């Protein structure tokens, strides 16, 4: 029984290691892919086909994709708003090279630069360019595509391989504007005209995509809209060695709710799910892109595993018929931006779940809400972390008090246990009996210091995931040299403080009776300090504050028990 605390600490350390190891296996970098491998071999294979969920026969004809001739447009349309800078390829109206202007890749840190200059070192180069979400570079290929699939017997319709006509090649959101509208048109010169309109709004990461079919021919036209995301496997940004989060496909349906669809899943089992509403997305750490069809429309969600490490996730609508001399509009929304939960909740049901807390969501979401509420008052994410730590400490105050009282009592009888151990060194059974008798006489519960800690572990892990997944903490400053809570401490001051507080807290606990265990326990502050050197500063800040509060509480309880002798 005296070894239970040692076992608990070792188990916790092993849990951390296994968690990190699991990240590496599941979400770590995959096999390197050469540029040559990634270049598309068949540009028509990425359309919705039977392997990705063929539309079932509806109305008068069996639906099948009809591809118009693929040509090169040569021109590119650029669009710049206050939060986005992107390109639209007239070939299909595909959105590519989308930059998030409010989110630079790296952040200047004047404190670090001052130290570098003080010691005469050259300043490290910073990449201040914005995060690029959609990308036409074959090594980081990520595109948002949309188009129409004509039913058999109907006139051809434009897919994302079809070149559209456009009015101008540059759009800039002016100070007096709230909206930009980019129209693209196509006609078969036989009465069928399609106008694809992309709408951008000030301060918004949501792009409206409407496709209007005008049928001035003498025959009805039947077809459906599709929208999809195409990308190669995502490579984690450098600088987050110990942070591995899920990157891959996601679908949300009313039946199955939030469901991950990894690249391996796309390769092994093609998705083919029909549902009303929902959305499909590709997500990565901090950012996401999602196609959101009308919430009252039935859609079929599909995935495809293409050649050369390209993967597709998307959806298509039911078949609709446009009668002669009439129009019909197909609509959808494309979200491309940071995973800010309050913003995403307003865009589509369940979209905030792309901030993935896994099975701890039920605990993590209230913690995020509290973190956000505190930030609304103090305006500093570092202070918000401290506030959440204080709240959690108060929430578990009684449990912690029980744990620390038990540890203090154990510490008080430690010398007597040592005497028992020496007296019955050759009789382990007798020693255990005498030890248990002493626990009963002194009313000491050897598990009392461990069980309250076990209860709190899910909350601690949930808070960890909140701090890891919250994009608002990315490059968020705290104070002095800590100008990015999502990056490691540049001077390792916080990890060292964490090690010191852990050592102080360890000194307040009863030492293991076994000398070998005692030596191993003394190494834990050093081991954890090294481990935390690579953790984001926000996480280490939480542990420093939590340890400090625990030291104060434990010291007070221990002192009162010692004074009561």
From TrEMBL:
<dbReference type="InterPro" id="IPR001708">
    <property type="entry name" value="YidC/ALB3/OXA1/COX18"/>
</dbReference>
<dbReference type="InterPro" id="IPR028053">
    <property type="entry name" value="Membr_insert_YidC_N"/>
</dbReference>
<keyword id="KW-0653">Protein transport</keyword>
<feature type="transmembrane region" description="Helical">
    <location>
        <begin position="377"/>
        <end position="397"/>
    </location>
</feature>
<keyword id="KW-1133">Transmembrane helix</keyword>
<feature type="transmembrane region" description="Helical">
    <location>
        <begin position="444"/>
        <end position="467"/>
    </location>
</feature>
<dbReference type="InterPro" id="IPR019998">
    <property type="entry name" value="Membr_insert_YidC"/>
</dbReference>
<feature type="domain" description="Membrane insertase YidC/Oxa/ALB C-terminal">
    <location>
        <begin position="381"/>
        <end position="559"/>
    </location>
</feature>
<dbReference type="Pfam" id="PF14849">
    <property type="entry name" value="YidC_periplas"/>
</dbReference>
<protein>
    <recommendedName>
        <fullName>Membrane protein insertase YidC</fullName>
    </recommendedName>
</protein>
<keyword id="KW-0813">Transport</keyword>
<comment type="similarity">
    <text>Belongs to the OXA1/ALB3/YidC family. Type 1 subfamily.</text>
</comment>
<dbReference type="InterPro" id="IPR038221">
    <property type="entry name" value="YidC_periplasmic_sf"/>
</dbReference>
<feature type="transmembrane region" description="Helical">
    <location>
        <begin position="6"/>
        <end position="23"/>
    </location>
</feature>
<dbReference type="GO" id="GO:0051205">
    <property type="term" value="P:protein insertion into membrane"/>
</dbReference>
<dbReference type="GO" id="GO:0005886">
    <property type="term" value="C:plasma membrane"/>
</dbReference>
<keyword id="KW-1003">Cell membrane</keyword>
<feature type="domain" description="Membrane insertase YidC N-terminal">
    <location>
        <begin position="77"/>
        <end position="370"/>
    </location>
</feature>
<keyword id="KW-0812">Transmembrane</keyword>
<dbReference type="GO" id="GO:0015031">
    <property type="term" value="P:protein transport"/>
</dbReference>
<keyword id="KW-0143">Chaperone</keyword>
<keyword id="KW-0472">Membrane</keyword>
<dbReference type="InterPro" id="IPR028055">
    <property type="entry name" value="YidC/Oxa/ALB_C"/>
</dbReference>
<dbReference type="InterPro" id="IPR047196">
    <property type="entry name" value="YidC_ALB_C"/>
</dbReference>
<comment type="function">
    <text>Required for the insertion and/or proper folding and/or complex formation of integral membrane proteins into the membrane. Involved in integration of membrane proteins that insert both dependently and independently of the Sec translocase complex, as well as at least some lipoproteins. Aids folding of multispanning membrane proteins.</text>
</comment>
<feature type="transmembrane region" description="Helical">
    <location>
        <begin position="524"/>
        <end position="545"/>
    </location>
</feature>
<dbReference type="GO" id="GO:0032977">
    <property type="term" value="F:membrane insertase activity"/>
</dbReference>
<comment type="subunit">
    <text>Interacts with the Sec translocase complex via SecD. Specifically interacts with transmembrane segments of nascent integral membrane proteins during membrane integration.</text>
</comment>
<dbReference type="Pfam" id="PF02096">
    <property type="entry name" value="60KD_IMP"/>
</dbReference>
């Amino acid at each position: 029984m005296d070894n239970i605390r040692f076992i608990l600490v070792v188990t916790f350390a092993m849990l951390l290691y296994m968690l990190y190891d699991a990240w590496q296996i599941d979400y770590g970098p995959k096999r390197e892919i050469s540029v040559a491998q990634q270049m598309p071999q068949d540009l028509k294979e990425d359309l919705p086909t039977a392997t990705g969920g063929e539309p079932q026969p509806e109305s008068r004809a069996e639906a099948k994709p009809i591809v118009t001739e693929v040509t090169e447009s040569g021109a590119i349309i650029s669009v710049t708003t206050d939060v986005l800078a992107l390109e639209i390829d007239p070939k299909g109206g595909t959105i590519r090279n989308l930059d998030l202007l409010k989110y630079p890749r790296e952040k200047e840190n004047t404190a670090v630069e001052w130290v570098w200059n003080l010691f005469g070192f050259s300043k490290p180069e910073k990449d201040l360019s914005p995060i690029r979400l959609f990308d036409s570079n074959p090594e980081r290929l990520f595109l948002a595509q949309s188009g129409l699939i004509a039913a058999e017997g109907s006139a051809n319709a434009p897919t994302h391989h079809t070149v559209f006509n456009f009015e101008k090649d540059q759009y800039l959101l002016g100070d007096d504007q709230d909206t930009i509208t980019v129209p693209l048109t196509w006609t078969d010169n036989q009465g069928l005209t399609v106008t694809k309109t992309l709408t951008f709004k000030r301060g918004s990461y949501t792009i409206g995509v409407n496709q209007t079919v005008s049928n001035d021919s003498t025959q009805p036209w039947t077809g459906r809209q599709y929208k999809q995301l195409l990308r190669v496997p995502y490579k984690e940004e450098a600088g987050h060695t110990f942070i591995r989060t899920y990157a891959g496909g996601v679908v949300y349906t009313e039946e199955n709710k939030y469901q991950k669809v990894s690249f391996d899943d796309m390769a092994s089992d093609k998705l083919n799910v029909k549902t009303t509403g929902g959305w499909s997305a590709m997500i990565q750490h901090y950012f996401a892109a999602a196609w959101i069809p009308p919430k009252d429309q039935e859609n079929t969600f599909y995935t495809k595993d293409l050649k050369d490490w390209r993967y597709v996730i998307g959806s298509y609508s039911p078949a609709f018929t446009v009668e002669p001399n009439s129009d019909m509009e197909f609509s959808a929304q494309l979200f491309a931006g940071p995973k800010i939960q309050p913003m995403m909740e307003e865009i589509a049901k369940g979209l905030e779940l792309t901030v993935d807390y896994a099975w701890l969501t039920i605990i993590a979401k209230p913690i995020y809400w509290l973190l956000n509420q505190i930030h609304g008052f103090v305006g500093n994410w570092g202070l918000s972390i401290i506030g959440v730590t204080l709240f959690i400490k108060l929430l578990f105050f009684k449990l912690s008090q029980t744990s620390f009282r038990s540890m203090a009592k154990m510490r008080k009888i430690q010398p007597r246990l040592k005497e028992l151990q020496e007296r019955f060194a050759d009789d382990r059974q007798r020693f255990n009996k005498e030890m248990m008798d002493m626990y009963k006489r002194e009313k000491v519960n050897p598990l009392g210091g461990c069980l309250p800690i076990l209860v709190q572990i899910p909350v601690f892990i949930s808070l960890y995931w909140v701090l890891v997944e919250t994009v608002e903490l990315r490059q968020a400053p705290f104070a002095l040299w800590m100008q990015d809570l999502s990056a490691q401490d540049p001077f390792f001051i916080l990890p060292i403080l964490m090690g010191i507080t852990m050592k102080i807290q360890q000194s307040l606990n009863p030492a293991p009776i076994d000398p070998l265990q005692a030596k191993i326990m003394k190494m834990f502050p050093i081991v954890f300090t090294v481990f935390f050197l690579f953790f984001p500063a926000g996480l280490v800040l939480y542990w420093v504050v939590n340890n400090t509060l625990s030291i104060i509480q434990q010291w007070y309880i221990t002192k009162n028990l010692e004074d009561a002798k």
